[in-house]
Amino acid sequence: MESPGGRAYDPDKAVRVAHGVILGACVAALGFSALLQAGDARVELFGWPCPMKCFVHSVFGIRCAFCGMTRSFVLLAHGRFGEAVRQHPLGPAMFGYVVPQALYRAAALLGAKGRAMSRIGLLGWIAGAAVLAAILIHWLAYLGGLWI
Ligand SMILES: [Zn+2]
Q1: Ligand 1 centroid vs 55 CA: distance in angstroms?
Q2: What is the Å distance from ligand 1's center to 20 Cα?
């Protein structure tokens, strides 16, 4: 199929780009988690506080669904599981989703194909949906006063 610019649409290239973008996001999240240091209220890079604040928390004074997730990731990257769970109870689930995603996307970019890769890909979609649903349910419980 020709695009308006005259170049043929290549679905394989689009899939490779998607694998690359997701792999980059996973590697960035894990890499920054390893570089950063987390305290109870903030994240630091070599002692410098991270300037990013949660928009929802800043404007509305409530935690968003992902508040504490960065600190949880950083603590997990440093092997501090208990503290990570206290920052966000689903941080370990999200971390446990991101690590195999990076491996799967790297394998796909290296040319891995076949039924096993298709099944792993489907399992990844299901796991991702389950983790996001759990994060949403946790946030709704927080908003309803059922969870701190
Ligand atoms: Zn937030």
Answers
A1: 7
A2: 27
Retrieve residue 80's tokens: 């501090």
Side-chain half-sphere of 42: how many Cα atoms within 13 Å?
Answer: 10
Q: List Cβ neighbours of 75 (8 Å cut-off, separation of 6 or more).
A: 38, 81, 83, 84, 87, 91
How does pLDDT run across 11-55, given as a tens digit for each residue?
A: 788 999 999 999 999 999 999 999 999 876 788 888 888 877 889
Ligand 1 center from residue 30 Cα (angstroms): 19
- Output the CA 62–ligand 1 centroid distance in Å: 8
97-110 pLDDT, tens digit per residue, is 999 999 999 999 99
- pLDDT value, residue 104: 96
Task: Give residue limits of the domains in the chain.
Answer: 11-143
